[in-house]
Write a structure and sequence with these properties.
With 89 residues, the chain is α+β, with helices and mostly antiparallel strands. It has helices at residues 14-26, 31-45, 75-78; strands at residues 49-50, 61-64, 71-73. It has 3 helices and 3 strands. The termini are far apart.
Length: 89
């Protein structure tokens, strides 16, 4: 099972978003489910191989594209680091 630990934020036309959400609801799917499926299909279409985080307990995610050496990434490395709020005296 895939771990869903990374967030993807994008800007989209509000009318297009509403139409997309209506279509997803008609198909009894969430927008997130559809976007994840589209990403999997896009990666496959372009020959990108990966190991989904959580598929192998101790294995880091491996991504490779034709003509490039595979790179290693972990879910923790993909998350941006957040600074703690500044303390006031």
């Amino acid at each position: 099972m895939e771990l869903k630990t990374a967030r993807l934020t994008l800007l989209i036309d509000p009318n297009k978003k509403a139409a997309f959400e209506r279509l997803c609801a008609q198909q009894d799917r969430t927008a997130s489910q559809v976007v994840r499926q589209l990403i999997r299909e896009y990666l496959a279409q372009h020959g990108v191989e990966y190991t989904a985080a959580g598929d192998e307990a101790d294995a880091p995610a491996v991504v490779s594209t034709p003509g490039h050496a595979p790179g290693k990434a972990t879910a923790a490395a993909a998350r941006p680091r957040r600074r703690p709020p500044a303390r006031r005296p």
